[in-house]
Amino acid sequence: MTEYIKSAHAKINLSLDVLSRRPDGYHEVSMVMHQVELADTVKLVKKDVKLINLTSNSAQIPLDERNIAYKAAELLFDRFNLDCGFDIYIEKNIPIAGGMAGGSTDAAAVLCLINDACSLNLSKEQLMKIGLELGADVPYCIFSKPALAEGIGEKISEISGLPSCKILLVNPGVEVSTKEVYETIDSYQNDERVDNKSLISCLSDKNLPGAVSYMKNVMQPVSSKMCPQITDIIEKIRSLGAIHAMMSGSGATCFGIFDKNADLSDAEQFFLGCSVNVTQPYIG
Question: What is the per-residue pLDDT across 157-186, written as a single tens digit (0 to 9) for each?
Fold first, then answer.
């Protein structure tokens, strides 16, 4: 049987601004998203038996309907009355619950793989619309290019990506509740907004020093109070010579942007007990 394979890339937030809360409880956001080379690998085999069988190399993720990738398969299974089933294997490399869309990018990959395996002929735009039913990050993970994301994350505009550089990812293995961060941020006084227009302009000009001066995550102070390791990790990343260091998403993963020739071969020894990855920008 044919095996369909897709890399499911992690994302980082080069910026994240939380705007007003909507009547439906969601928050309007404005954020610059960028994928990196670090990725899970998702494999899918179409079967005759109408069952979804999910397996993984990771013992940390659920393998049933609690998993968003499983939900993605169920969604297409029901939406299009598919008369087949799927064996899905997820090789996890992205830290779990780390603010890098690890679950969402797996779900996005499953949607794309089933689209191919079952010849549904759905466009990327149609897949993104379906993906939004699963989570706000899923449409971006399907889009899979550097982008400005607005609304609740579903309004996506392609932008220029990072110039060549190295990216150090450090995750302390502490889960920060995105729901709790959003609930707290409404009462957090933050008068300094994110200037995404200037950030995007600098990226367009391949001006990395200029771009990093506009990289800001308004969730960082809130998440740092819940997880003090975030502040310590960012300080250590800076001490290694990073051009810029900050938190991704709601945390707790932090990242540093380094010169493309930086030697980060021994970076892991500075972050004992953490998941450490050296990667680079993925343009798509």
Answer: 999 999 999 999 999 998 888 888 888 887
Same domain? 57 vs 195: no
**Which residues does the annotation mark as catalytic?**
11, 137
* Residue that finishes a domain, picked among 93, 125, 158: 158
Average pLDDT over residues 94-114: 94
Which pLDDT tens digit goes with each residue over 257-283?
999 999 999 999 999 999 999 999 998
| E strand spans, the chain | 3-21, 27-47, 52-56, 85-91, 147-150, 155-158, 166-171, 244-247, 254-258, 275-279, 281-282
Domain that holds residue 193: 166-282
d(CA 196, CA 282): 20
CATH number of residue 194's parent domain: 3.30.70.890
Radius of gyration of the chain (CA): 19
